[in-house]
Amino acid sequence: MTDTTSAPSAVRAAGAVAARITGTVRIVGTGLLGASIGHALRAKGVDVVLSDTSPAQQRLAIDYGAGRAPAEGDAPVLIVVAVPPDVTADVIQAELERFPEAVVTDVASVKLEPFRELSARGVDIRRYIGSHPLAGRERGGAISARADLFIGRPWVVCRDEETSAADLSLVEALALDVGAAPLEMTPEEHDRSVALTSHVPQVVASLLAGRLAEAEEGALRLAGQGVRDTTRIAASAPELWVQILGANAAPVVEILDALAADLREVSDALRAPDAPGARRAVAEAISHGNDGVERLPGKHGQNRRFESLVVMVDDTPGQLGRLFGELGELGVNVEDLRLEHSPGAQFGLAEISVDPAALHGAISGLTERGWRIAGNTND
Fold it and tell me: According to the UniProt entry, where is the signal peptide (predicted)?
């Protein structure tokens, strides 16, 4: 959101979008996302400056190698704001005012709220481009940061009518340099999308996991991969999610209301499962879920269905690595993997997703090598 008459020296032209950042990048906020961006950029040789309101957090991120401390005369070409949602707008404004030549982006999971707040304050936001990497981990902080966190993940970039091509290419270069795939959306499109794919799943997972808190111990001993899959993201920071959900409340409420209606329809059907139409209502709810899963992009963004086989793996060091190695020798590519430990047994179950054409060869080849196949989940 600056003058468009010339391309910034921060970008080396190898194609506008694919250009690589060559100037200094300043990262404000050294939690998981900020520090991970620092690690990924430094791995590409980019000069990274780290800033955090917590000196201890900043020093920790520096010690781990995510960047260096600020120095007199630093002139960043790009500033990445990676702070909690409730202070994102404040920090963006401060960085725009402090560094009048830099482009500023942020990685907050809500995009419309900071844009509206800055606009309402009368801040000149021509050099601000909101963005959001769709990546994360259950654990936070600089200690959990990883350089490969963004590889293959979508990175939404929110441009508007005042966004210059030069500034847009700089933010997209950031995404490309850390291994992500830039995707342009408006702030409204982004917030509606993450409400469905991220924010509501968090609420649903947390509510379901909450039912486990008072469950009998005997019931918990029966927990398998299904309940683990559906509650995995429930181990999240309540303080952060209160901010995220509050900032994106309207689209989240709309989806939750629709989901509540769906749940009511199924529960009403199950109150009288022998009533006319009850079984059909339940079957159609499950079938509609099948349709939704079919639309989820798989590996490399492809809507593909894979076949799965379940392999019994002894709970001893090196067994999983041996399994992967022998699948490689068989020419079988692992598209996805889930691990489940059998309660009270000294082995685990590895559910491996493969291309349908490779399923028979994988089963026969592993069996010949002494592996025990517990089943084919698509039988």
Answer: none
